[in-house]
Write a structure and sequence with these properties.
Elements (H helix, E strand, L loop, with lengths): L4 E8 L9 E7 L5 E7 L18 E4 L2 E5 L3 E5 L5 E6 L6 E6 L3 E6 L4 E6 L4 E17 L2 E13 L15 E7 L2 E6 L4 E5 L4 E7 L4 E7 L2 E6 L4 E5 L5 E6 L23 E6 L5 E5 L3 E6 L4 E7 L6 E8 L3
Length: 320
């Protein structure tokens, strides 16, 4: 089966006012052809920090339209990437991933530890849920232990009195599957399933510093940004397969002299699956790798730049 075309968004770190700081690429994984289809240069954002408010983020598709999130706004494009409409929201802050179940689009409001919901039929934001953690003492196999129990608190996403931007958990992933909604983040050690009654129950154990964590083959799949790898693990957190992201010689890289906390190669983010089970993963500098987890080999990799400032964000199979 030929490899698909993917849509990849990116954030360009350490850019300044007046420079373009993100974009979107259509990449034909079979031929290697890569075309930039959006160039983002919004000058109204805060340029402080590493990625901050720069670039374009999560991707979803609905009714032949393309939904792409920026840091505080949802944009809708046609398949030729003409902007059709946009939806700002005062309680969207540093959005990372988005995911649709066909009725609702879920967006991570990362800096506000929240998930914001957008009704695809009504074309409006309808609900937001703040994740709250509370430490409780429980009796474990080896005696008393302290664990964090999570719940969500619903609020109006358009309210002026939303939660403060604490970024306690850095929720960067939301995933919909079989009528269920899952979230994960850099400072969460579990993939959590969200319930309408406010409960947030553990689905699987994961390490800190994951991106794109989701259920997968009776376990879970995630980008380990700390280990520079794509990992398939069981629900108890044991890694079954770990595939390292591509790395390049320093002499091949552009802006390799930047501090690692600003930009570096191998930053793993962006994840999708082919219909025959291959894993497609992103890493910096804007590189796409195709992994066969069963054979434990990387079958293809394509880079659109050698500039380490270019970090993939959203990554989805192109459906058109």
């Amino acid at each position: 089966m030929p490899l698909p075309t993917v849509l990849m968004t990116e954030v360009i770190r350490s850019t300044h006012m007046g420079q373009f700081h993100g974009g979107a690429w259509l990449i034909n994984l079979e031929s290697g052809q890569a075309d930039m289809v959006l160039s983002w240069s919004d000058g109204s954002i805060d340029f402080e920090g590493r990625g901050g408010m720069r670039g374009l983020r999560g991707i979803a598709f609905h009714n032949s339209e393309i939904y792409i999130a920026a840091h505080d706004e949802l944009f809708v494009f046609d398949r030729d990437f003409n902007k059709l409409r946009s939806f700002p929201c005062r309680n969207l802050t540093q959005v990372h991933e988005i995911c649709s179940d066909g009725r609702t689009l879920y967006l991570t409001s990362t800096k506000q530890d929240s998930i914001v919901e957008f009704d695809l039929s009504e074309q409006k934001f309808t609900r937001a849920r703040l994740l709250v953690g509370q430490k409780q003492q429980v009796m474990g196999k080896r005696g008393p232990a302290v664990q964090t129990v999570y719940r969500t608190v619903a609020f109006d996403p358009l309210t002026e009195s939303g939660p403060p931007p604490q970024d306690l958990y850095h929720i960067n992933s939301v995933w919909c599957e079989s009528g269920k909604v899952y979230i994960a983040g850099v400072r969460l050690t579990q993939i959590l399933e969200l319930h309408d009654d406010g409960c947030a129950t553990p689905y699987a154990d994961v390490p800190e510093w994951t991106h794109n964590a989701r259920p997968f083959r009776m376990g879970c799949l995630y980008n380990s940004t700390e280990q520079d790898a794509v990992v398939w693990a069981d629900k108890r957190g044991k890694a079954l397969v770990s595939m390292k992201v591509p790395k390049y010689a320093e002499s091949q890289l552009v802006n390799a002299n930047l501090p690692r906390d600003i930009a570096r190669q191998g930053f793993a983010r962006g994840l999708c699956l082919t219909s025959d089970g291959l894993v497609i993963a992103g890493s910096s500098p804007s590189t796409i790798a195709v992994h066969d987890l069963i054979a434990r080999k990387t079958v293809k990799r394509i880079s659109v730049t050698m500039d380490v400032r270019h970090a993939p964000h959203g990554l989805e199979i192109w459906p058109f």
